[in-house]
Structures are given as C-alpha cells and as structure tokens.
Amino acid sequence: MAESPGTLNINGATGLIDMPSGEAQKDATFSFSTSVVGSVSRTTISFQFSERLSGSYRFQTWRDWDTLIPGDEKETDRSIDLRYQVLKEGKYRPALTIGLQDMTSKGLFAAEYVAATKNFGDKLKVTAGLGWGRLGSYGSIGSPFGSRPAVDPTGTPNADQWFRGDAAPFAGVEYKISDTWTFKGEYSSDAYLLEDDTRGLIERDSPFNFGFEYQRNPNMRFGVYSLYGSEVGLTFHLILDPKNRLTGGVAGPAPAPVKARPARAADPEAYDGGWVTQADAGPILRKNLAKRLAADGIAVEDLAYTATTVQVRIRNGRIDAGAQAIGRTARALSHVMPASVEVFEIVPVVNGIGASKITVRRSDLEGLEYSADNASLLRERITVTDAGPTPAYSLGDEGLYPKFSWSLRPTLRLSEPAKGDIGLRLSATYDLAPGWVLTGSVYKQVASNVDPGSPSTSPLQHVRTDGSRYTEFGDPALERLTLAWYARPAPDVYSRVTLGYLERMHGGISGEVLWKPVDSQLALGAELNYTMQRDTDGGLGFGEYDYDVVTGHVSAYYDFGNGFLGQLDVGRYLAGDVGATLSVDRVFANGWKVGAFATVTDVSAADFGESGFDKGIRFTIPFNWALGTETRKGFSMTLRPGSGDGGARVDVGGRLYESIRDYHTDGLDPDWGRVWR
C-alpha cells in the first residue's frame, strides 16, 4: 500500500504531539517548526535527506531556568537528531523507525526510540513505540540493554548511552476529522524530570496529551494541545518542498522559436559560406546576437566563426538554470548566424574562464523543437567537453571590460534560529578584465538581538569564538574587499588567487587549484592560504590580535547521483589545528541545497568547547524558488550546535568547485528539461 507522509510533533520531528512516530516525511521535505509549552520554547529545522533518512537541528530555550535568582534567567541548548525508517508500511506491516534525539549535545533532551505506525483506512493512524533517555523516564519496563552512563558534556556523540538505561513504552492515535482538521492523542513516556522535578517549570500531572491541528494548505500547519494535564502547547510548522517551486514556475520572457533555415535546394547560395570574407560580418553578427541575448540577461564575451561553425562565449547573469541559458543562446544563434553555420559551440564563462563547451548541431534544433520528449532527444545528440582556450580569431567586445555593478539590499544575518541582526549591505563588483574581479561589501546594522560580545575564554586562538564582538564593534564594517584572478592553466584544470580582506574576521591571500573534467563525478583540489586576523571594529587594521597563520587543504569532491554531493577536506585550519572535514549536500536543480558536515581535528573535545567538535547543517533557498523571478541569488545559512575555534576555515568567496559545476554534466543534466524554455 502507498504510505502517507507523517505529520510533525512539537519537537519539529515526524510524530504525534510530543512523541515520535514510525512514519517519514515525503522525500526532500524541508520544515521549520516553532512551539511553546509553558516556559519552554523549541525551534527546529528538519530535512528528509532521502526516503528513509531525516535529520533535525533544534534550538531550545528554558525560560526562568534559575528560579532562585530574580529575573528572566534562561538556559539554551542546540541539538541534532537523526531518524532512519527501517521498514516502510505494507498491507499488514507497520512503518518502523529508529531515532536518535539530541545525539551530540549536553544531553538535556537526549533520547532514543523505536516507533511503529500503522494506517487504518484514510483517517486513522495508530503508533506504538519504546523509548530510552528522556523517552524512557516514565513507566519504565526495565533496562534491556544495561544501565545508562553519564552524558559527556562536551558534545561528542553519546554512543555509549544509546538505547541504554530505562526503557518505557509510548503510544498514540491520529484521526483525520476533515481535510483541514486532525485530532491527536498520546500516552507519553517523557517524565519531564528536568522541567518538573528539578526546576518546577512544567507541572506534569498526567502522561496523556490531546490536541487538534489545522492545515489549510500543504505549506502551513498549526496545532493547539493540552499537555500533561496542566499545560497548553502551541506549535506552527512551515513545510516546504524543494522539488516544487512555490509559484509553480519562473516568470520571464518567453523564448523565441528556433528559426529554420531554407532548404539547401531552394537557396543553395545561403549555404556557400562566402559571407565569411565580408569585413563587417563579425561585428554585425556579434551586435545582433548580443541584442537578442540581452533580453535574457546574457552577455556575449567572445564570438568566433568559420563558414560552418560558430563559438560563442557567454556570461549568464540572471537565468538560474544553466541548461536554459544554453537553450536561449542556441535559439538566438539560429536567428543570427547564416545558413551555412551548422555547428553551435556555446561556452559559459564564469569569472572570466570557460566552464565547459556545449556543442549543438543546428539541424537537431530545427528538427526536434516540436518533437515529443525533445529535451531528452536533444541531450542525446549534444556533447559537453572541456571549454578549451579562446580561439585566437575571436571577436571580443571592448565595451564589456571593465564593468562595474553595485547593489544596496536589506540583509538578514542569523547566528542561530532566533538570534541575529538585520541591516543594509552595500556590495560592488568591478570586472577589470577576463578573469580579474575586484569585489567588496560594507554592512550597517539596523537592529540586532545578538548578545553583547566579550572576549572568548577558549584556549585556542579566537578565530571564531569572538564573532559576537565583531558584530558588536564592527558597525558599520567592511566585510570583504578582494582582488581575485581566475585562470585555466591546463585542460580540465582551474585556478584562483584571491588577495585582500577575505571575510569579516580574516584577511590575506588564498590560492586554489581544481582538477575537474566536465563529465567526471570526481574532482580533486588543493588550497593554500596565508591570513591575518582582522580587528573587531570592521576596519582595515590587523593589530588587535597580532595573529597570522598558514592554512591549507587537499580536497576530494564526488557526485553520487540523485543530487547528493560529498566532499572531504584534509589539512590545517585557522587555529593551527590539523584534521579533516566530511560534508554531504543534497542539491536540487532549482538551486535548493541542504547538507550536513562534521570536522574532527587534533583539538581535544574539552579545548574545543561544549559542542566537542565542529558540526552542523547548512542550507540555501534560492529566491527564484519562492518568488518566481529570474535571479541567481538566494538565502544561505549554516547552523551549529555550538561554536568553537577548532576546525575553522577561512570563508573566502568564489571557490572553484561551486563556481564551475553548474555548467558540467552533473550540473546541467538535472535541469536539462529547461533547455527549451
């Protein structure tokens, strides 16, 4: 039977009210949840990485934490969950999920569970499970796997605790009253010992919870509950599907149809190629092509041609899908180029260097435009190869360089789900020549709720833990001011050198080399940096910390397919520590990106801080997904359970793999269907 997606609980995970369930969300579901129960509030971001695996990042606050001291003293905690659905629901078999809750933090919310859920018709769901940790604290049936050791407060994975100690059953039902209203009831195995017995924040008089949830559309769900016989709980879920745009599509000018050539027999002179000897042919063709492509935000870098082949190098400034930019360019060429030109070579240019060469036969464009499944048929006939050097006889545009652009935009900077600042960012880019880019940005706060900074007590160099001081004292602040040089030293090889104020905390010089064949799932890179730590006032100085360091990494990138990208970096980090970072991201054709990472170095968990080692989640939401407008910009955020100075890399912009991958086969193919749009 087809398994319906589960609903979310007050913890932002798939479940009933406070308890988990055996169900999973629909593949790739991204959700933002916030809930309030008494003096406890929770904000959770969850993502269904695959059909079976999901993860959550939770920020939790206990207000009135210290009831013996006047004032609103509070305790905060960040935690990470993982869930894996072992069994999908069948005709007689329930869905079965194993989960780890708060698996690496201080243990205030730590629990493990096994939960099973069965649907009975379209309206009723029944869940039963067994929990450990917090979920084994009420109604214990014993400790089947031994006693539970004390938690390690440094935030390393508490594997020796998992499924140890008292185990307790929980259960619940979910009944769909109508298309918009759902009733939930559960028996909870969480005794709320921390909040009730220890602090008196919540009175737990009963293990039974009841509530109603309202969902008018697929993206928003509200809940109100009676909890533990004494509390009222409220929750809100924002549920997003990265696979489908909120607006249904991207607005923009419709593409021009392919212009078919006359039959060779009807007009043989059109195919003789004599036009190439005309002195003004090149400037006229380039001007006409640039005019057509300007409507799509595409600039013509270079144009080279023979009687049968044309190569055009383009700079795509607006269209988010590389395949669509290729398609628009090919259509424009069909209108501009004489009939003798059969082969179109389209080279997307990123930061002044060719990313790849897409070769399209004009006759394929003409013959497939109105065919069924024309995108797949065209993909079978085009080739994607290394861009190669710019032809010596190409025609550039003397007016294209230098080029200056700037923007002034409102900006939200979040350090955690409920903490951050809003302000204005003035950014500018000056393209001096192909491959030479001067960029800078200045930021001015308008409002902030970030706690005032104080010097970090970390035993390591404070390369990251003084971040709040940079926020407090750097207002306004010069965030970046860099000169970058991009080049192609050899086939399949890309290079970058960046000099200047690389980020708001560090400046210096960064060099990078990347080997990435256009049709390879594997890429290899190396980066070397020399940096100095900037002053906290956001100015030009480096004297406050008097700290400089040489860092560097060797990196391997691998595309596993279905949008999953892996990256392994091994080397030296900003605090002088040595180790490795492993990250996995899921990338969607429309620009969504969600991933997780972990870094382990020779810094001990005690020296790193309460989170033990650097780890977290990151995501990018493209503006065009939400707004339906043609733009390549988006909102990005990285969330960590705790901050530390170990495992920190310089945040230099324009790294090579992210820059050129969009125009390689693994970047073009997922969204190739837009080539005809």
Characterization of this structure:
The protein contains ten helices and 32 strands. The protein has 677 residues and is mainly β. A 13-stranded antiparallel β-sheet has the order 20-21-22-23-24-25-26-27-28-29-30-31-32. Strands 1-2-3-4-5-6-7-8-9-10-11-12 form a twelve-stranded antiparallel β-barrel. Strands 13, 14, 15, 16, 17, 18 and 19 form a seven-stranded mixed β-sheet that branches. 11% of the residues lie in helices and 43% in strands. The mean pLDDT is 91. A hairpin with a 4-residue loop joins strand 2 (40-48) and strand 3.
Report the end-to-end length measured between terminal Cα atoms: 37 Å
Question: How many DSSP-defined strands?
Answer: 32
Specify the helix fraction band: 10-25%
**Could you say which overall geometry the principal axes of the C-alpha atoms support?**
globular
* Assembly annotation: single chain
- Number of helical segments with 4 or more residues: 10
Spatial strand order of the main sheet: 20-21-22-23-24-25-26-27-28-29-30-31-32
**Computed structural class:** mainly beta
